């Protein structure tokens, strides 16, 4: 049985379309992360699943039931908000029990479920406290606990970690991962703009941009085989280096001429019709290395060296105007500003996109 | 015209005098303890002295007028309340003993108590309901402006307006009072509303509620908007309906503001005077403390002792609520 299905889902505010027809099948028990830049519609989409925003067009199914006109409380969902959204005047216990009290559950059942959730989240000692007497991390755990108590089919997270400090974010992220494992039948949809969260938590990532899906796939597939320039740039940090190029020899393997005149061969097949067309050549900073001999991809002047200990980041000028090439090289490197370096990369790890930004490797 | 010019001239002179005072005293202070062109230790000593003196100079006028217009009258009132009619012969607690045996005083206490029960509750309730409802409609702001408008009318002005609403003409003649016109239109007999003992209190209270609802609405509307939208959305997901969200999620979050509005109106009600003076002047058993005080103090030859004693009672009633109100308001400020 399907967990969550979106069929041509649309959202418009008056004449302005913000979500342009999204099709998505999420299996029961799957952990799906929506990522994208601000304003791409990921939060709007999540709120439409929750029922907090009306669906302007298309159909939505939760556990096989069409829910377009079903009120939020009856959709079988629970939501964790970015700001926690705890009821400030209620104790932790009452916060978690509120939904069940509204639903007129029995006292014993409420108590059992609240205590079970508190146990999972180590909140038992805090049940009598008000939210203002809790730390940020504890508040977020209460918000998660409130959602667990609803025993939802679909668990929705709206940037749940972005109000926490860095250390707490990592710890809470791991807790969410554990929670996901302990609830194998519960579908989880998670919105974030943090790609580390997306990469570590997701079974599948949905990359959104300007109200449509750019690519859906497991994290590593998105990293290794981005479907287009947008995904290539969005996944990975620092972002993939993109260099304008011309296809010099199409075939089972492709020869391209990069800006600056150097030629290189990629293990990507292109049809003969592409010969002579402009393209975008991509290589990730971490796939670049210092070339030993004359066999190199390109050459440039180091403008900035950032030594982080575990890696050294080199910013190299001279290839693309105003956009340095970044190389992320393991360890400590004895390179100074102003030096000329030659960089190379494994042929299998190069990327090539056509003039419209679509990847040739599909 | 001449009056207008005179008023403008007074205002200008007042502002100029204030500026001259601050500028002048500061200049004198700097002359007495100069901080330029001297050796280090002298400069720092002079700076210390000027810094210690300056706040008192600047606060001076305010402290002076507070003393003259607030502290002195309080002391004088207490002193007067222990003296007789002329304020010359000491009578001890005589005025207070008279007071508690006086039927009209007890009537006033009773009426004030009724006012206290009804007006703050009604004004806060209507203010809250209107604030919540007007947030959802497109003409909400127009409605709010109209409801807020009575706040700009003086109590006496409001009383004049309502005098026409309650106006009574003999049965059979055309009723020019709105209330009687409605009653007659539905086949009833006209009444002189403000002369009905006990009930007339409520007709007078309506006027103050009409004025104060706007105040409650504005403050509570701001408080309602301060409630995080997410807590409401979380309650929607939890399955709460509109009433449950309003009473279980929204009201508890603005409880502090409701208390401040309530007590502010309560203090105002304890001092209610103009409306009663203008509408009934305390006749037909509608007397209240402030009007009773005014009666004894300035009417029928004046009895400073008894008037002051009533004033002291009003003050004693207001002070505890005032303290509670200020504490509540301070707490509200902290939590935001």
3D architecture notes:
The complex is a heterodimer of chains A (362) and B (336). Chain A is built from 8 helices and 20 strands. Chain A is of the alpha+beta class. Chain A folds into 2 domains: 233 residues, Rossmann fold (3-Layer(aba) Sandwich); 113 residues, Nucleic acid-binding proteins (OB fold (Dihydrolipoamide Acetyltransferase, E2P), Beta Barrel). The longest helix of chain A is centred in the middle third of the chain and has 17 residues. Chain A is elongated, with a radius of gyration of 24 Å. Chain A starts with a strand and ends in a 9-residue tail after the last strand. The model of chain A has no long low-confidence stretch (mean pLDDT 89). Chain B is built from 14 helices and no strands. Chain B folds into 2 domains: 80 residues; 241 residues, MetI-like fold, CATH 1.10.3720.10. Chain B has 336 residues and is an all-alpha fold. Classes of the chains: A alpha+beta (362), B mainly alpha (336). At the A-B interface, β6 and α2 of A face α9 and α10 of B.
Q: How are the SSEs ordered, and which strands pair?
A:
The complex is a heterodimer of chains A (362) and B (336).
Chain A: E1 2-13, E2 16-27, E3 31-35, H1 42-50, E4 57-62, E5 65-66, E6 77-80, H2 92-102, H3 107-120, H4 136-149, E7 154-158, H5 166-182, E8 187-191, H6 195-201, E9 204-209, E10 212-217, H7 219-224, H8 229-234, E11 241-249, E12 254-258, E13 263-266, E14 278-283, E15 288-290, E16 298-307, E17 311-317, E18 325-330, E19 340-345, E20 351-353
Parallel strand pairs in A: 3-8, 3-9, 6-7, 7-8
Antiparallel strand pairs in A: 1-2, 1-4, 4-5, 9-10, 11-12, 11-14, 12-13, 14-20, 15-19, 16-17, 16-19, 17-18
Helix pairs in contact in A: 2-3, 2-4, 3-4
Chain B: H1 2-32, H2 40-81, H3 94-101, H4 103-134, H5 140-148, H6 155-165, H7 178-185, H8 199-225, H9 229-237, H10 242-253, H11 255-270, H12 274-279, H13 289-298, H14 304-335
Helix pairs in contact in B: 1-2, 2-14, 3-14, 4-5, 4-8, 4-11, 5-8, 6-8, 8-11, 11-14, 13-14
């Amino acid at each position: 049985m399907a967990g969550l299905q979106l069929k041509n889902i649309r959202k418009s505010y008056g004449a302005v379309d913000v979500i342009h027809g999204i099709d998505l099948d999420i299996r029961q028990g799957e952990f799906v992360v929506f990522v994208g830049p601000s304003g791409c519609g990921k939060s709007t989409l999540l709120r439409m699943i929750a029922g907090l925003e009306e669906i302007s067009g298309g159909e939505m199914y939760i556990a096989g039931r069409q829910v377009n006109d079903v009120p939020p409380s009856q959709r079988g969902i629970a939501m964790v908000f970015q700001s926690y959204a705890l009821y400030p005047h209620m104790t932790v216990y009452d916060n978690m029990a509120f939904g069940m009290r509204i639903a007129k559950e029995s006292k014993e059942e409420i108590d059992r479920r609240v205590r079970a959730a508190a146990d999972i989240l180590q909140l038992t000692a805090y049940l009598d406290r008000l939210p203002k007497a809790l730390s940020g991390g504890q508040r977020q755990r209460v918000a998660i606990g409130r959602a667990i108590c609803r025993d939802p089919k679909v668990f929705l997270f709206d940037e749940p970690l972005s109000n926490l400090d860095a250390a707490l974010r990592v710890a809470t992220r791991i807790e969410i991962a554990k929670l996901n494992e302990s609830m194998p039948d519960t579908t989880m949809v998670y919105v974030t703009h943090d790609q580390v969260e997306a990469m570590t938590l997701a079974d599948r990532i949905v990359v959104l941009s300007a109200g449509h899906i750019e690519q859906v796939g497991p994290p590593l597939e998105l990293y290794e085989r981005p479907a287009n320039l947008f995904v290539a740039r969005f996944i990975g940090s620092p972002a993939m280096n993109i260099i304008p190029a011309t296809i010099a020899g199409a075939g089972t393997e492709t020869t391209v001429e990069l800006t600056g005149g150097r030629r290189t061969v990629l293990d990507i097949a292109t049809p003969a019709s592409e010969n002579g067309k402009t393209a975008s050549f991509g290589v990730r900073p971490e796939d670049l290395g210092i070339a030993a001999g004359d066999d190199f991809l390109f050459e440039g002047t180091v403008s900035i060296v950032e030594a982080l200990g575990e890696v050294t980041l080199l910013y190299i000028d001279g290839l693309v105007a105003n956009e340095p090439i970044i190389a992320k090289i393991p360890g400590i490197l004895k390179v100074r500003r102003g030096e000329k370096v030659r960089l190379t990369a494994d042929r299998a790890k190069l990327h090539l996109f056509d003039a419209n930004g679509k990847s040739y490797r599909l | 015209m001449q009056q207008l010019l005179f008023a403008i001239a007074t205002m200008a002179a007042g502002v100029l005098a204030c500026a001259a005072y601050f500028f002048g005293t500061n200049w004198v202070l700097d002359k007495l303890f100069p901080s330029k062109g001297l050796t280090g230790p002298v400069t720092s000593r002079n700076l210390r002295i000027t810094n210690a003196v300056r706040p008192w100079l600047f606060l001076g006028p305010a402290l002076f007028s507070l003393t003259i217009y607030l502290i002195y009258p309080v002391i004088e009132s207490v002193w007067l309340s222990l003296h007789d009619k002329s304020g010359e012969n000491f009578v001890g607690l005589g005025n207070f003993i008279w007071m508690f045996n006086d039927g009209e005083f007890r009537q006033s206490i009773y009426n004030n108590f009724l006012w206290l029960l009804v007006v703050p509750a009604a004004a806060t309730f209507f203010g809250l309901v209107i604030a919540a409802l007007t947030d959802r409609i497109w003409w909400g702001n127009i409605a709010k402006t109209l409801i807020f408008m009575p706040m700009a009318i003086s109590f006496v002005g409001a009383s004049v307006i309502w005098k026409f609403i309650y106006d009574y003409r003999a049965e059979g003649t055309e009723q020019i009072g709105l209330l009687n016109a409605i009653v007659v239109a539905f086949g009833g007999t006209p009444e002189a509303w403000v002369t009905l003992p006990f009930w007339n209190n409520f007709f007078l209270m309506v006027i103050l509620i009409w004025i104060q609802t706007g105040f409650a609405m504005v403050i509570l509307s701001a408080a309602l908007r301060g409630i995080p939208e997410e807590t409401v959305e979380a309650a929607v997901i939890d399955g709460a309906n509109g009433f449950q969200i309003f009473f279980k999620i929204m009201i508890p979050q603005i409880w502090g503001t409701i208390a401040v509005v309530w007590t502010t109106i309560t203090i105002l009600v304890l001092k209610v005077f103009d409306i009663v003076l203008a509408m009934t002047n305390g006749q037909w058993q509608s007397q209240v403390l402030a009007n009773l005080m005014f009666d004894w103090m300035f009417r029928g030859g004046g009895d400073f002792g008894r008037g002051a004693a009533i004033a002291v009672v009003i003050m004693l009633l207001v002070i505890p609520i005032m303290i509670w109100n200020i504490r509540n308001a301070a707490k509200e400020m902290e939590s935001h």
